[in-house]
Amino acid sequence: MLKAVLLGYDLEQPSFRHRMRTLIGTLEAAGWQARAERFPSGRYGLRTWERRSLLREADVVVLHQIKLSALEASLFASVSRRRIFDVDDAIYVRKPRRLGEAANDSPWRKRKFAATCRWVDVVAAGNDVLAGVARASARSITILPTSIDTAVYLPTTATSADPPTIVWIGSPENLVYLEMIRPALARLMGRYPTLKMRVICSRFPDWPEVNIERIAWSSATEAQALAKAHIGVMPLTDDEWARGKCAFKLLQYMAAALPCVASPVGANTEAVIDGFNGFHARTADEWERHLESLIQSAELRARFGASGRAHVESRYAMHTYQARYLELLTRLAVGGGPD
């Protein structure tokens, strides 16, 4: 029986759930033994040495978002057979602390990222931007976009008779990006008094001029919360950190057949095709204009929503992601090359 160990700093973190835990059923159905394990974020070197028995037993180990120093990467390689570095964020820089600031350049992070790329067999990158950075150090790269199971999501049931609802879903640390569209939302609220900004999160903006509908995030209810909205949004600043993001919330909106408005940054430009399944917006005026177009036209919302769902099913289907990852793991485990 082939064995895979999937390592992550936090097994409940969204990217680990969507990229790693979704593989376990596929691997087990193919006759593998798959195990998700937490890897400590400190105790460098010791953490690897303490897990040498686990690593040696595995045919393939996947390090999800885990960067190793050159010394630890060498040690890790000496106690494991085959290794994949799975990355879906720009973890080679620090996220900007404030809106509008550049990503914090971190030579230490970049050295660890490069060392990890050098000492694994394959880098599995979530998008072209991440693959491009990894290419300078990695021996082999494959692009495996973060994907989604559309069967989990219901096409929107919101109608023109319902109050127009714009939705954003995400982690608390990304709420700052909503500040980019706050002026546009405030102006729209003045023209459309019933308009709601639904935020699905564990924290919420406190904006007196914007009608915020607070929905506590839950994996059990997020699909239903999206299905009662009209439009999905993903504003982003254009910096090195944001360009590495994998646009997962856009996939969620499209799975719910919602038209999207998004900043044309990084993977957003691949998820939202301007004028096909949504709009690109760069300025507050563009955000206001595109959101108003969708608020006013049920036909446009329906057309973009249907196109978005078809796009996500063809490009970001979970079963395709699982099949490709299984093929990669199997090829490495049986002694073949990464390509």
Give the radius of gyration.
Answer: 21 Å
- Multimeric state: single chain
CATH superfamily descriptor of the largest domain: Glycogen Phosphorylase B
Mean pLDDT: 95
Helix content: 25-40%
Written account of the structure:
- The chain is α/β, with parallel strands linked by helices.
- The chain has 2 domains: 3-147 and 317-333, Glycogen Phosphorylase B (Rossmann fold, 3-Layer(aba) Sandwich), CATH 3.40.50; 150-315, 3-Layer(aba) Sandwich (Rossmann fold), CATH 3.40.50.
- The protein contains 14 helices and 14 strands.
- The chain has helices at residues 14-29, 46-50, 52-57, 70-78, 107-119, 128-134, 182-191, 222-227, 240-243, 248-255, 268-271, 284-296, 298-315, 318-333, and strands spanning 3-8, 33-38, 60-64, 83-87, 93-94, 104-105, 122-125, 141-143, 165-169, 196-201, 212-216, 231-234, 260-262, 278-280.
- The strands form 3 sheets. A 6-stranded parallel β-sheet has the order 2-1-3-4-7-8, with helices on both faces. A 6-stranded parallel β-sheet has the order 11-10-9-12-13-14, sandwiched between helices.
- Strand 3, helix 4 and strand 4 form a beta-alpha-beta unit.
- Helix 1 (14-29) crosses helix 14, helix 4 runs parallel beside helix 5 (107-119) and helix 10 (248-255) packs across helix 13.
- The radius of gyration is 21 Å and the shape is elongated.
- The mean pLDDT is 95.
